[in-house]
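Q: C-alpha cells for this one, please.
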Amino acid sequence: MHDTLPGLIKQTMKWITSYLPTLYAAGAAFSISALMSIYDGKSLVQTATGSMACGIMTLAVAGSLEFFGFPANAVTFVGASIGFMGAVKVRDWVTGIIENRARNSKNEDQ
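A: Here is the predicted structure, written as C-alpha cells:
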C-alpha cells in the first residue's frame, strides 16, 4: 500500500517537467560554484554555503529575467554565470547595484 496522496507523484513530476530549465540552471550554478570553490581551496563550509547561495540566487533571478532584459531561455546561461562568479562576487555586484540606485535616488531628491 502507498502512503502518498493519490496523484501526488504525478503532480510533482508535472511540476518538475514545467520548471526543468530553471532547476537545471540552479543545479549548474550550484555545481560550478562548488567546483570553483574547491579549485580555489576554500573550506567545506564556504564551498557548501556559497554553492547553495548561488543555486538559490539563480532560482530567484530565473523568474525575473525579462525584468533584467534577458530572454526567458537564457536561464541556463545566467545560472552558469552566477555559479562561475561565486557567492561573494554576486553579493558584491548586487550590493553595488542597490547602492548606486540609492545614491541616484538621493541625488534626484536634492
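A few notes: The first helix runs from residue 8 to 18. Helices lie at 8-18, 20-39, 44-62, 75-85, 87-109.
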